[in-house]
Amino acid sequence: MGRGKLRIHLGAAPGVGKTYAMLSEAHRRVERGTDCVVAFVEHHDRPRTEVLLHGLEQVPRRELEHRGTVLPEMDLDAVLARRPQVALVDELAHTNVPGSRNAKRWQDVEELLAAGIDVLSTVNIQHLESLGDVVESITGVRQRETVPDEVVRRADQIELVDMAPEALRRRVAHGNVYRPDEVDAALSNYFRLGNLTALRELALLWVADRVDAHLQRYRSEHEVSAIWGSRERIVVGLTGGPEGRTLIRRAARLAEKGAGGEVLAAHVARGDGLTAASPKELAEQRTLVEDLGGTFHHVVGDDVPAALLAFARGANATQIVLGSSRRKAWQYVFGPGVGATVARDSGPDLDVHIVTHEEIAKGRGLPVARGARLGRARTAAGWAVGLAGPALLAVLLSAVDPGFANDMLLFLALTVTAALVGGLWPALASAVAGSLLLNYFYTPPLHTWTVSDPRNIVAIVVFVAVGAAVASVVDLAARRTHQAARLRAESEILSYLAGNVLRGETGLEDLLERVRETFGMESAALLERADDVEPWTCAGRAGRGRPVERPEDADVDVPVGDHMALALTGRVLPAEDRRVLAAFAAQAAVVLDRRRLREEADRARSLAEGNRIRTALLAAVSHDLRTPLAGIKAAVSSLRSEDVDWSPEDTAELLASIEEGADRLDHLVGNLLDMSRLRTGTVTPLIREIDVDEVVPMALVGVPEGSVALDVPETLPMVAADPGLLERAMANVVENAVKYSPPGVPVLVAASALADRVEVRVADRGPGVPDEAKDRIFEPFQRHGDAPRGAGVGLGLAVARGFAEAMGGTLEAEDTPGGGLTMTLTLRAAAECPEPVPAAEPERQFS
């Protein structure tokens, strides 16, 4: 039995027609004879959607009771027992009622797929987990129900259900999405034109990225090298010179003209020494391209134009941006340059832009050297001079008779020329050919291969020796130039690598991806094991090649110490590349060690924080708790004393002192216990719908009468909060405000609704708190200014903020206009409240 297939209908917002499209697809499949059932579909009282449910078999829902309310849920066991070919499951991100087998509906879908049942489902773009912050910044609404991106990415099919924002607003206005009494609130809040446009763009870009990933995988699997211009990808060729920033900005402007444009900056470090790359300049250019939304790539290639074109075609780029050459005019004698060569070899499917800049023709800063050794063209020219040159010189000399000595010097000059142009072997060939021609035409006896005069024999031997010596010197110089240039290219890569690693800018996976990309491999993995008998485990991996479980299975493996190895697949690297690869492997081990040290540091920081809390707790117990205990002890001892006859007034005063000390003890111990629960993560709020005007008055029981003015309207929407935690947080905030408010000036407690939130503001007219201390006052055991020791242990505000955040709210401090401090407690409005309209299909959140 195989795994079922998942098809998801993805929308940008509620009401675009996801459920309608899913039901229409189900009817099409039923007409083709497919066994389809409705496992769970919510029509939300939309008539057209409800009509489509007719004619489809529906699995009865399971009803679960939660806090006195009976709620329907999908009956997963019934669907599995029915075993249809296709099951329709609406709202993939839905949170199941407590008591269900799984917490989330997408987990139910996973069980159906594992059982071999195909599933049709729906989800809105705002429910993707990775987009929560983005959606909140656009709409002001935090999504409580989310689904992991990977669940949606694994879907076999994703159908984008799209609708223009104007059309969706018309649907809402006509009452096709929400009830008539909710329309105005919806159009003025969540369904604003700007919100819908931004969400639509998010959905389109997310689907486009997924399609692009599938395309790249297909091209890789089928080894497609031709460029498919499905979207604008612009490769910027960087030399490391100052003109790079101009090229990056120009490429970014080109990318902005096309939807989904992408910028890839590439620097080719090569072995022929044609570039003078500045590591500092490259680092700045990398930062610039990443700030503009592009990516930076560092590759190695001896032939820069070929390497750049190969990278562009491998990335399926459509355009290449290069700068006009910085070479001076005389330097063009060595070749047409990178820009002209790339433009010539790019072909019809890759556009090349040559961009002007301020550094044109100002020189590269380093002398120009040729390619690997002397280059093919120069070597061919050397062979032409070495073989054809002596024959042509012999023909010319046959017309005159300058003498044997002059003839030998001319042939020697020709041999030196061949050595300078083509190196060792063309020069040796020229020396041999020249000596034979000298012997045949100019050494007595003429036109024979014999030499009668010993002096001529010595001259010919010296002639060959001089030619060979000059040729060897030229060849050695070329070899040293090549080696120096390659070492410089390697040093550029290592400098760039080490700089990023030392600055902590590169993670392990990013570094492995850089290794894979630099050496043109399919995959790169860092393997490790505890000892020689333990199996290898993968500490990090990059690329799409076959997984490697042991270093022996890789095409290239570089050991790092005794129990770690860098393994690469794709091809066998030459020995000269392994030196750089070994440096990469060592840096990968450093990055892994740094990551683990950071984790250890985080754990140590947590322990240190715990120790700090314990130390402060002991200090609080040693003084702040002792003070009320001492007062209680003194009052009780006085009352029990038989030496003094206390009057009724004195007795009442002592009893009041005992009660006040006991209240202080209760408050301090309560705060200490609350902070302990917050630090250990054991605070579990029981979120439910409550009225703020019912909880806030209960929090004011302990404050002096007349010290607080209350302004909490009864018309406020209900909030999602834990009543006990909310009351405790409000009590701490109000107590703090009353403590610092001037005598006779009441603290104002006011509440109001704002979008999907309810704000409770506690404003006092005290001395206030400077901006730099506003965050510090929420830290445990912190008291601002010259607060006396008896004022508490400094936990009230810390506990209040902790409780607020546990309920999904916030507590912030700001200045009161006219002087003082205002504490703003922000709570989420309940989902069922009529205003604002929720950001998605009706949701339920359970604790």
From TrEMBL:
Per UniProt, subcellular location reads as: Cell membrane; Membrane
Question: What's in the keyword line of the UniProt record?
Answer: ATP-binding, Kinase, Membrane, Nucleotide-binding, Phosphoprotein, Transferase, Transmembrane, Transmembrane helix, Two-component regulatory system
Q: Where are the transmembrane segments?
A: 380-397, 409-437, 457-478
**Top enzyme class of this protein?**
transferase
InterPro entries assigned to the protein according to its UniProt record, in alphabetical order: HATPase_C_sf, HATPase_dom, His_kinase_dom, HisK_dim/P_dom, HisK_dim/P_sf, Histidine_kinase_KdpD, KdpD_sf, KdpD_TM
Determine if NADP is one of this entry's keywords.
no
Membrane topology term: Multi-pass membrane protein
The UniProt entry's coiled-coil ranges are none
A Pfam family (short name) is KdpD
Catalytic activity reported? ATP + protein L-histidine = ADP + protein N-phospho-L-histidine
Asked if the Swiss-Prot or TrEMBL record annotates the protein with the keyword Membrane, the reply is yes
What EC number(s) has UniProt assigned to this enzyme?
A: 2.7.13.3
- Domain named Histidine kinase is located at 620-831
Query: Could you state a single Gene Ontology molecular function term?
Result: kinase activity
Record's protein name? histidine kinase
Q: What is the lineage of its organism?
A: Bacteria, Bacillati, Actinomycetota, Actinomycetes, Kitasatosporales
